[in-house]
Amino acid sequence: MKYFGSCLCGEITFEVEGDFENFYLCHCEKCRKDTGSAHAANLFSSTAKLKWLSGKEKVKTFNYRSEGHIKSFCTNCGSALPNIQMNGKLLVVPAGSLDSDVFIKPQGHIYYANKANWDLNLESVPKFDEFLKQES
User: Fold this and answer.
1) ∠ CA 44-96-43 to the nearest 5 degrees?
2) For the chain, which residues make up each domain, given as ranges?
3) Rounded to two decimals, what is the model's pTM?
4) 32-50 pLDDT per residue, tens
5) First CA to last CA across the chain, in angstroms?
6) pLDDT tens-digit profile of 10-30?
7) Which of 44, 75, 116, 132 is deepest in the core (most CB within 10 A)?
8) Cα 36 to Cα 23: distance, rounded to the nearest angstrom
9) CA 26/CA 13 separation, integer angstroms
C-alpha cells in the first residue's frame, strides 16, 4: 500500500509505502498536550518506509525530555508529521497527516484512564457540517 500525506501549509509532503500494523487513540497527558485535543490518533508500522517528497528541511523532531515521547512537525505551520522511533524500528504516522484514505480502523484507546475530564460521551454531542458562528 502507498499512502501520501502533507502538512497544513503544504510545504512538506511525504509518502509511506507499506502496511500499518496498529492504530491507537492515545489519551495520555503528553499526547493531549501535543495535539491540543482529546487524544492523538497514530498509526504504527515496523515495516513501512517513509519518504519525504518535499520540505524535508522544514521537519523538526522533538523528543520530550529524551523519554521517547517523540513528535515531528512542520516548522512553518506546526502540523504533526511522521517520525521514526525505537532506533529506526518503528514508524509512527499521525493519522490526520495523511491525505490518502486509511483502511485500518482504530484498535483501541490507550492511556484511557488519563483522558480529559470533558472527554465523556462525545458521540452524543450535536454534530454540524461546518463551524457555527455565535451571534453577538
Assistant:
1) 10
2) 2-116
3) 0.91
4) 999 999 999 999 999 999 9
5) 49
6) 999 999 999 999 999 999 999
7) 44
8) 19
9) 25
**d(C-alpha 65, C-alpha 126), whole Å:** 39
**pLDDT tens readout for residues 91-122:** 999 999 999 999 999 999 999 999 999 998 88
Non-local CB neighbours of 75 within 8 Å, separated by 6+ positions:
58, 59, 60
- Cα 65 to chain centroid, rounded: 20
| β-pair partners for 59 | 74
| Residue 130 pLDDT grade (very low, low, confident, very high; cuts 50, 70, 90) | very high
Q: Which residues pair with 45 in a beta bridge?
A: 91
For 2-116, CATH number out of 2.40.50.140, 1.10.260.40, 2.170.150.70, 3.30.360.10 equals 2.170.150.70
Written as one letter, the residue type at 81 is L
